[in-house]
Amino acid sequence: MAKNVYKVGLYIRLSREDGDNLESESIKNQRTILHSFLEGSTELCYIDEYVDDGFSGSTFERPAWKRLLLDLDQKRIDTIITKDLSRMGRDYIRMGEYIERIFPERGIRYIAINDDIDTLYETPGMEFLQFKLMFNDYFLKDTSKKIRKILRSKKEQGQFLGWKAPYGYKKDPKDHHRLIVDKEASIVVQRIFSLANAGKRPQQIAELLTKEGVATPSNYAHLNRGTENLWSLRTVRDILSNEMYVGHLIQGTRRKINYKSSREVRTPKEDWIVCLYHHPPLVDAALFQEVQLLLKKNRYHRHRGNSYLLRGLLRCKECNHAIGVHKSSDHRRYYCSCTYYLSHSKFGVCTPHSLNYLKLEEALLQNLRTIMQDTVDLKKITTLLKQIHKKQGDQADLSRNLEKIQKEQQQCQDYIDQVYDDYLKQEIDIDCFHRFKDKYQQKIESLKNQRERLERFMYHEKNDDEDRFFQKVQSYFSLNVPDRSLLLYLIDKILISEDRTIEIYYKFKM
User: Fold this and answer.
1) Residue 51, phi-psi category: left (phi > 0), alpha (psi -120 to 50), beta (remainder)
2) Those residues with Cβ within 8 angstroms of residue 129's Cβ, 6 or more apart along the chain or in another chain
3) Of 114, 251, 320, 374, whose CB has the highest number of CB atoms within 10 Å?
4) What are phi and psi of 175, to 5 degrees?
5) Quick one: DSSP state of residue 99?
């Protein structure tokens, strides 16, 4: 009777979790052992080799393993050989399922050389299969635990371990665990905070940046996440709420469910790893805190088509929940109502606190106008602003500064040309040339940014009508045209009582 010939696929895997055994488990060593095992065998016919280098045994989502399974489906191979059980995988449940159910049902032979496993025969290793699988799984768990401790220790020491630096920063080329400022992106971050502090909502900021064609963080980092350059509300909110921009290193905000799963969950804030004053801040702490308050108030945003000046400022005095603004069914009037009551009315909590919104808004604005007239000296403010405006708008000084910057740019370019000539004459080597060139190019770039800012300022100075500008200033402080950003600076909160009593809490003392 002819002897069966088995078509063999050799499977090799190596990962960092192998620790001190990297040399013994190396690709080369595994390959040598597997091919030595095949030598002289008349029943085992080598067909192909499948190698997963750098993949954990905790998962079977590996490219070479998937290719091996495909070849098994297509009957190209019918036998798998590994150096030992751990090379195929370390997941106790999945390994047991493959060896004891899937392989036997499909007529697939599996051999683990060093563990004396051969599913075709009752080899001694089969008697201890469950113990060996459990040990391999325990090794994976123990290694994962040690790695987590090492990573946490590095984070607590202030080493940045993220795969990508936060937008506005970049990894230091000399030390990838250190963050340095990305000049181009940091300008965008600072502008986002400035816009938010001026009363712009995250959605408005996103729309403005999209309209101006500013590269989104993913596009700026050249990540392949689509071709459209659209800023989202979430992206802007994430930037505005990220304390990394104050200079604090915050890590450990997410963790994996366990060592077998790739799914992550949020870590409680008290368990975050925070290193204060770790890197250069892009915004100061006072501005950051002010923006957080504005974000909280802007959270209760209107439905499209409506604009509520008091959005986020209204609170219920009885339950301290937000007071929302709603349209009547006939769309003719706007009214205030306690959001807690609306969502839990069937439980009898709180009361409607219903109030005509437009009348409330006008009454509050009239109250503010009276306060402004009594406390703000518009004439004095206008005089001071004119002095500042004149000082900043001196076109002669601006032109001289611009001319100076242009001259410095040309000098730097001349230095680069001179250094290049020295290199051609072999008076300096290539490394020296690059050092000088990089130094002056960085200075040219810095001068270019200064020049652009100065030119933009000069453009606005030339195109703004001074009288019109100061009319706007007076209108602003007189609240002729109500400005939400001013209201957010002036008002802390507005409490509405069940009997419709209004209490206004200002951020200033009367």
Assistant:
1) beta
2) 85, 96, 99, 100, 117
3) 251
4) -155, 100
5) I
pLDDT digits (tens, 9 = 90+) for 258-298: 655 566 678 888 888 888 888 889 998 888 988 888 887 66
Each residue of 314-366: pLDDT tens digit? 999 988 888 888 887 777 788 888 988 887 777 778 888 888 888 888 888 88
Q: Can you name the residues that pair with 181 across neighbouring β-strands? A: 169
**In terms of Cα–Cα distance, which of 84, 108, 99 is closest to 6?**
108
Tokens for 325? Answer: 């603004």
Taking a C-beta distance cutoff of 8 angstroms, is the pair 276, 248 a contact? yes
Nearest to 29 by CA among 65, 53, 4, 56: 53
What are the angstrom distances between the C-alpha of 281 and each of 186, 242, 247, 292?
10, 12, 4, 17
Beta-carbon-side half-sphere exposure of residue 201 (alpha carbons within 13 Å): 16
Nearest CA-CA partner of 367 in 208, 504, 186, 194: 504
Query: pLDDT tens digits, residue range 364-380?
Result: 888 888 877 776 666 67
CA distances from 285 to 329, 358, 466, 508 (A): 45, 36, 34, 21
Instruction: For 9-39, give the DSSP string.
Output: EEEEEE-GGGGGGTTTT-HHHHHHHHHHHHT
CA-based max dimension of the chain: 113
CA-based radius of gyration for the chain: 34
Residues 251, 275: Cα–Cα separation, whole Å: 9
Cα distance between residue 274 and residue 255, in whole Å = 15
Which one-letter amino acid corresponds to residue 179? L
pLDDT of residue 297: 67
CB 246 within 8 A of CB 179: no
Name the nearest CA neighbour of 477 among 391, 386, 380.
380
How many CB atoms lie under 10 A from the CB of residue 351? 17
Residues with Cβ < 8 Å from 22, sequence gap 6 or more?
14, 16
Q: Write out pLDDT tens, residues 148-161.
A: 787 788 888 888 88
DSSP 3-state assignment of 74?
coil
Phi, psi of 408, rounded to the nearest 5 degrees? -65, -40
- Please tell me the distance from the alpha carbon of residue 500 to that of residue 507, in angstroms, as a whole number: 22
Instruction: List Cβ neighbours of 37 (8 Å cut-off, separation of 6 or more).
Output: 81, 111, 113
Contact 108, 81 (CB under 8 A): no
Cross-strand partners of 82: 112
At residue 95, the 3 state secondary structure works out as: helix
Place of tokens 């905070």: 193
Least confident of 185-189, 438-442, 472-476: 472-476
